[in-house]
Amino acid sequence: MVVLVDLLRTYYGDGTNGSVWLDGERVCYSIELPWRDNVRNISCIPEGVYPLSKRYSNRFGWHILVKDVPQRSGILFHPANDARRELRGCIAPVSELTGVGKGVASRVAFERLRLRVYALLDGGESVYLQVKKGGSDECD
């Protein structure tokens, strides 16, 4: 069975905010770099559907890999609270948005998302990230 994790984005000049949904429930919010034509290290990834998998690195430990992104590699879900300072194209789950490309309690939000995605993968599900423009991100 295929399971979709929806990332609904709102784009701003200085960053991208979003909300991450699974089975009709918002799991967390997200922060990313602004859209800069998919240029490596300075842009969020394009809208689309991408397979997710487990990945381990010494830097981030266990995290979520976003696969098959056109002209990009190493795109991850990992903790960060400030997209401009801490991201180079990856996606950071946050518990609450505090500004454009900024949030708080990223490790808590990341772990909530990671546990849900890993449980699906461990159960034999194919899990995909669906990135699209969304509605309000509830950030002032």
Description:
Helix content is 15%, strand content 44%. It is an alpha+beta fold and 140 residues long. It has one domain (2-133): L,D-transpeptidase catalytic domain-like. It has an eight-stranded mixed β-sheet, with helices on one face. A two-stranded antiparallel sheet has the order 8-9. The protein is globular and about 40 Å long. The mean pLDDT is 95.
Q: Quick check: average pLDDT?
A: 95
Strand content: 35-45%
If you consult CATH, what is the topology? L,D-transpeptidase catalytic domain-like
CATH architecture group name: Beta Barrel
C-alpha Rg (nearest Å)? 13 Å
Give me the secondary-structure category. Answer: alpha+beta
Number of strands: 10
Level-1 CATH class name: Mainly Beta
Strand order of the largest sheet: 6-5-4-10-1-2-3-7
The general outline is: globular
